[in-house]
Amino acid sequence: MPFRLSLFRAVEGLGPMRTWDREHREPLGSREEVRADLERVLSGLRWRSSDRMLFASGPFDGDEHAFEISLFGRPNETLMDIDVYSRPPAIRAIMSGLGLNYCYAPESDELYFPFEADDGADWSSHHELGKEGHDEANPG
């Protein structure tokens, strides 16, 4: 089952966002810069846009509609995260390609670890961060 997740970059060792006392996510660049970065990592992206959002879907590893990506913000607005609906293989490719180290499920306020998950995994056994162990989620 795919998951809707927020991918971002921040210092190592943070817990779920509900535990933060301030913003820790690092800027990823403008919406257009993030789009260009994604196009370098993933081939065959099909984009739709509005003034406040870019939406992409595309193939990955033989699956024609393997992921959906949403970039919320105006074209020159700096983004802090990427919203993705996908299985672990495409999420790993995006995280590795863009140097992202957090995979967060906003609905449940839990962190997920796509580098520990099987390709078709039910991630229920791979979520929720304990303070120790977050470094295992970092691909680099």
Task: Give me the secondary-structure topology.
Elements (H helix, E strand, L loop, with lengths): L2 E6 L20 E2 H11 L4 E4 L3 E8 L2 E10 L5 E2 L2 E5 L1 H11 L3 E4 L4 E2 L29
Antiparallel strand pairs: 1-7, 1-8, 2-6, 3-4, 4-5, 5-7, 8-9
Quick gist of this model?
The chain has 140 residues and is α+β, with helices and mostly antiparallel strands. It has 2 helices and 9 strands; from the N terminus they run ββαβββββαββ. Strands 3-4-5-7-1-8-9 form a 7-stranded antiparallel sheet, with helices on one face. Strands 2-6 form a two-stranded antiparallel sheet.
Textual characterization of the structure:
This protein is of the alpha+beta class. The protein has one domain (about 5-15, about 25-135). Helices cover about 15% and strands about 30% of the residues. The protein contains two helices and nine strands; from the N terminus they run ββαβββββαββ. It has helices spanning about 30-40, 90-100; strands spanning about 5-10, 30, 45-50, 55-60, 65-70, 80, 80-85, 100-105, 110. It has a seven-stranded antiparallel sheet, covered by helices on one side. A hairpin with a 3-residue loop joins strand 3 and strand 4. Helix 1 packs across helix 2 (about 90-100). The radius of gyration is 14 Å and the shape is globular. It starts with a strand and ends in a 29-residue tail after the last strand.
